[in-house]
Every structure is written in structure tokens, then in C-alpha cells.
Amino acid sequence: MSHSPDPPGTRQAQKLRTRQALMSASLELLEQQSLSSLGLREVTRAVGISPAGFYRHFCGIPDLGVALVEETLGSLRALTAAILAETGDTERRIARTVELIARHVAEQPAYFRFLVRERTGGVAPVRRAIATQLDLFSEELTEVLAAETELRGWQPEDLRMLAGMYVDQMVMTAAALLEAGPDATEETARITRATRRRLRLINVGSAHWLDEGQPSSA
Amino acid sequence: MSHSPDPPGTRQAQKLRTRQALMSASLELLEQQSLSSLGLREVTRAVGISPAGFYRHFCGIPDLGVALVEETLGSLRALTAAILAETGDTERRIARTVELIARHVAEQPAYFRFLVRERTGGVAPVRRAIATQLDLFSEELTEVLAAETELRGWQPEDLRMLAGMYVDQMVMTAAALLEAGPDATEETARITRATRRRLRLINVGSAHWLDEGQPSSA
DNA sequence: GTAGTCAGTGAACAGTCGTACGCTGAAACC
DNA sequence: GGTTTCAGCGTACGACTGTTCACTGACTAC
């Protein structure tokens, strides 16, 4: 029997699979607690490997946390890319943006919950990793905004400020939606409505920023 | 010796003092971790009482957390009262508001760190308690805004939205200042500058809200 | 085919954890 | 005065924690 001697790369593939299992199991456990209280044994038990096996993949829970940040990045990238691809008039873009946030949060609640919770959590390296990523998105958004015709003539620092407000608004909306839970349709509607209103206010503010927003005119 | 038989109420006073010690010790320990990983023994050890003694004051760590929320309220009340008492033109009020936030956070970092961290932390009752309090502040602020002459003619829901933005902006600023640390004067200046800019944008937005902010005009 | 690599094991380590029990001694009460 | 109350103690319990070590056995490379 010329059975192929197991597909090549079986070794490394299996290792990756276990690593992935550790991460997604952690993500599940983290829905009800925070990273600083997550136990190493708790994770390995959920995956079905021995505690010692954990160290073949991570040198500790904080390390796993940082890895989770990087994985979570995927969800965030997909969301922001979808938002930035949005076209149409302002009101339509606001509606679609909020819609997109709500859908992504509903589809991948664990990722967003992790980000929102550990952004201010008790594990410094994870906090830093999340902050770095959000800053990165903010910078990307700044560049996109710089190309916007409505924002012609804006100072770079003002553009950064505006981008930061959008990013923070996204995070806060995600946090509120998660807190409401998946079945609270009425509360969810309330949150998305409030977010649309906020984005509208920010847009009105930017429309008149150059008229009276700069302190130099004082 | 007609020594007074100890001031009356010694018993209750001592109990209160121990309770207070438990709470402030917890607050200190929480600067480096989150509530869901805070150990009961860890707290009693810091205070110098036996683990069993803890139960004379709280029925568990989550209970202590909720009590901490109520205590923390004092700091928040002082801050918001100071902000609301501010007068003068818009730009001056913005500057003073941000100044006040920075000072309060610098003077009572532990309280604000606790609020910011546990607002999205892993302990549901504490999360709810903080959300309730922040909602309360938001409502109070809504009523104050309703009396503002510049906001005459605003819909109640729009006022609530604006108040919510201010509150969230406060929380986010506090979070950023805490993350920077007390000695990062340059970073602190950067943060306060950015916050002033944001508040300015919100103000410009509200100044033109009635002109074009309402979706009914579409 | 044979030697080497290495993901995962299983046992043991010294701690820590939350909780329960009955006790003590001082404050509070009548 | 005597009696009651009760904050805090000491001890003990079983369960759980992170980390280490030498090990096995399936995969890989030559």
C-alpha cells in the first residue's frame, strides 16, 4: 500500500491547530472573566492537553493575551475596511457604518469583547498591544480623511483628532452593544440610534471646523 | 480615674474603620490587576486581618467591588460638580474642564483607574453599578444642558446624546491620562490638548446642530 | 533505515485560594 | 451588675494554582 506517509508538514500543522485551539478556548473563557484572572490550567483543561503542554506554545498567559490581540486584529481590519469602503452621502454613510459595526460585533462578539475589556484591563503588555493597534488604525483613518474633499485645508493634528474621535466612537459603540447582549433588540436599536446621532454631530462639527473651531482666532 | 468608658460608638466606628481599610487596600492592589483576579486573602493580608474577618464586612469580592463603586462616586461627584460650576466663554470653559479632569485624575488616580478598568471588567454586578452611576451623571448633565441658552430648542433625545458624549469624553480622557502615568508631563500635555480639541469640535457641532443636524430635513 | 526533533505526557513541587468552624474578649445594652 | 452582641482570630479543609522534570512516541531529515 503506497499510503502517503502522512501529508507533509503534519507536525507543524498539528502544532498550529493546538495553538489555535488554546487561543479560541481562551477567548471563550474570557467572555465571563478578564485576562488577569484567566488560569493556565483552565485553558489547557478546556482544550484537553496537559498544563505543561501550554508552554510549547506560549511562555505564559500574558503572552497568549498578546497573541490574541494580533488575532483579534483580523476582525477589526475587516470591519474598518468595510467602513472605509462605504460611499454615498453623509447620512447614508453614517447609517451603513453603524450597521456594519453592529453586524461585526454580533457575528464575532468574543473578539470585540476581548478588545474592549482588555483595552483597560490589568495586563500591561496586552493593554499596550491593543493601544498600538488602535493607534495604527487611527493613523490609517487620518490618511483617508486627509484625502476627503470636505476636509481640505485641515491641519494634520486636527485630522488626527477627528480620526481618534471616530475610532473611540467605534469602540464605545461596540462596548455598549456587547453589554446589551445579542437578544436585546430594543436596546440595540437605542444604541445604534444614539451612535448615528453622535456621528452626525461630529460631522456637523467638522463641516464648520474651519469657520470657528481653531483657537488661533481668539 | 474617671476615664470615660471609651467614646460611645467605638464598636461601630472600629468596624467602619476596618471596612474602610479593606476598601482602600483593595483599591491599591487594583492598580496592578483587575477585580476579577483580586483575592480575598490578598486583601485581608494587606489590611492585617484574618481571611475570615473579611466576611464580617462583605459577602465576597464582587460585593466589595460594588461598595468600591459607591465610594468612588465621591471623586466623580466632586469632579463633575466642579466642571458644572465653571463659567466664562466656551474656550475658557473647555480649558478649565480639561484642567479639572487632569487634576482630579492626578490626585485620585486609584479611584479613576478602578472606574475605567472595571467599567468593562469581568465582574458583571460591578459593571452594572458603574454603568448606572455614569447614566445618572449623564442625566444630570442633560438637565443642566437643557437650561443652557445656546441649546434652546433642542430635542430631549439630542440633549441626552450630547451629555453622553461629554461623559464618555471625560472617561476616555481619564483613561488616557492614567495610561500615560503621573510623570509623563509631555504625554499628559498631548492628551489634554487633544481633548480640548475634541470638546471644541463637539461645541462647533452643537452650535450648528439645529441648522443641519436633524435627519428630518433629509 | 536510522538518528534527531519536539509536541504533548504525567507526576510531583510548593504555594495559594475561598470557606467554615468554634472561640475570645471587649464593647453595648438593660 | 450581669448578659448579650459581634469583630476578629486560629485552624483546618479540600481544591486549585503555575512551574519543573524526565519521559514517550510520532513525525522529519538525511
TrEMBL record, chains A, B:
* Stored Pfam families: TetR_N
- Where the record annotates domain HTH tetR-type, the positions are 16-76
Which Gene3D superfamilies does its entry note?
Answer: Homeodomain-like (1.10.10.60), Tetracycline Repressor, domain 2 (1.10.357.10)
Residue ranges of DNA binding: 39-58
Check the record and name the InterPro entries matching this protein.
Homeodomain-like_sf (IPR009057), HTH_TetR (IPR001647), HTH_transcr_repressor_FabR (IPR050692)
Q: Enumerate the SUPFAM superfamilies for this protein.
A: Homeodomain-like (SSF46689)
What keywords tag this UniProt record? DNA-binding
PANTHER family on file: HTH-TYPE TRANSCRIPTIONAL REPRESSOR FABR (PTHR47752:SF1)
Q: What is this protein called?
A: TetR family transcriptional regulator
